[in-house]
Amino acid sequence: MYEPVIGLEIHLQVQTNSKMFCRCPNNCFEQKPNTYICPVCVGLPGALPVPNKFAFEQAIRLALALHCDITKETKFDRKNYFYPDLPKGYQITQFDTPLGTNGYVQIELEGDVKRFRIKRLHLEEDTAKSLHFEGKKTLIDFNKSGIPLIEIVTAPDFVDKKEVTSFAKRLRQIIRYIGISEGEMQKGQIRFELNMSLRTPEQAGSSVLPDYKIEVKNIGSISVLEKVIDFEYLRQKNLLENGKKIVSETRGLKNMTGETVFQRYKESSDDYRYFTEPDIPPIKISDDWINYCRKSLPILPAEKKYYYLQLGLENDQADFLVEEKNAGEWFDKLIITFFQGIQFEFRFVNESITEAKEILKNLPYNPIKESVKWFMGDVLGLMEKKSIKLEHLPINQQHVLDITNQVKNGKITGTIAKDILNDLFNSQFQGKTIDEIVLSQNLTLNNDMSAIEVWVTEAIEQNQDIVESCKKNPNAIKALVGKVMQLSKGKANPKMVEQAISDKIFINK
């Protein structure tokens, strides 16, 4: 079986107030063409570039988050080529002194942990945008020209589609966590270039690199990236099986199905005639500057997932909260709120996690593990149903903790808890705690066995068919419990109901 050999180049637009080498606003998405431009970003003669310090700091922060070595003295270079969207005839980039080198991203895959290498990370400027119209007319919008870009180049470490997409998702998480970009692919803020070739069946599993490389440019979504890998695998496999020699080339996307088309044979670095940018002096990066950037880094996704798992969350729950950063931050406040309630100052650090685990182990149930079910299931479900954003939630973290506590301690049923949440979303009971709502609405479970037996007797008399089913299939008792809960309007203690039904049916046999 042929084995893919895949590397990625990722272009990331950096979130800054101004462009990379001028003061034009870096906020041009869907703006009127050619309105956010100046002599520098359209390459007029005599215009001098001035590097954006904040863009540099953002690139250092990302390099540190990707475990890169930081180049202490770096510079900018000119990459020379002609294309209509490149106004100067060259791109200001970094060639032989990239800002970061020798990094990695670690991914959890099917119970295993794999490390994918980052060869280099460097800063450059974005190009303009070509707008193609019918009749073969093309116009250029220079608003995007000069936007700060970070380019990340991986080693050819990926051997299947799942590895590639897992890496792409984790990289996007890291980018969002450290706040250097929104990571919105539909806005072109992250673009992938795929480098792919195939090892022969004899070479599979080895470190041998094929003697060719196919590059596919401007892939704007992870789903399309998957489709391109599928398409290129079949295309290259068919060529190799038919004895064809594959030559290194650059290909483009034909459409969103992942189909690729030939554009040109690949260039080498010599074709770009790199030389040092004469208008920007070398830039020295001090240890103090690096430490300043390092201290500003938040907890990163892999570490946050580890902490969630240590607190008792399931793997898919942890993955969701890591991927959906805003939801994760909301739930983090719930965790902190719970521990504050038991007089423990919780923080997302190893020492605090270790102590928190001991506290949770000695409780009758894990409130963090139980609360996440209510949050991810009912709270987020009601948010979607009622089109409410997380920042406008009509409930707080204490509400979810109290609902969890009421249900787990047998004070209310899950059905009643859902009704309370729904009422809270409909702006009822504003300013009231869950305890106050349960008390004022008389929602506490009825534990009076004499009352429960009356409801059970009535349910048995009205549902003899279910009773007969229970004698054949013990699991059918759940249906009879449901009938009793209807008669009691949800107030009967379901555990006591089930026991009473079992006793009655047994006696009647």
Verbal overview:
- The protein has 509 residues and is of the alpha+beta class.
- The protein folds into three domains: 3-192 and 263-293, no CATH class; 301-440, no CATH class; 449-508, Arc Repressor Mutant, subunit A, CATH 1.10.10.410.
- The chain has 16 helices and 16 strands.
- The strands form four sheets. A nine-stranded mixed β-sheet has the order 2-6-7-10-1-11-12-13-14. The protein has a three-stranded antiparallel β-sheet with strand order 5-4-15, with no helix packed on it. The chain has a two-stranded antiparallel ribbon with strand order 3-16.
- α2 runs antiparallel to α3, α9 crosses α10 and α13 (449-462) packs across α16 (494-508).
- The longest helix is centred in the middle third of the chain and has 20 residues, at 222-241.
- The protein is elongated.
- The N and C termini lie far apart (64 Å).
SSE diagram, text form:
Elements (H helix, E strand, L loop, with lengths): L2 E11 L39 H13 L3 E2 L2 E2 L2 E4 L9 E4 L6 E10 L2 E14 L3 E5 L3 E5 L6 E7 L6 H18 L11 E10 L14 E6 L2 H20 L7 E5 L6 E6 L9 E2 L6 E2 L2 H9 L5 H10 L4 H9 L1 H17 L8 H12 L5 H20 L10 H12 L5 H12 L8 H7 L8 H14 L1 H9 L4 H11 L6 H15 L1
Parallel strand pairs: 12-13
Antiparallel strand pairs: 1-10, 1-11, 2-6, 3-16, 4-5, 4-15, 6-7, 7-10, 8-9, 11-12, 13-14
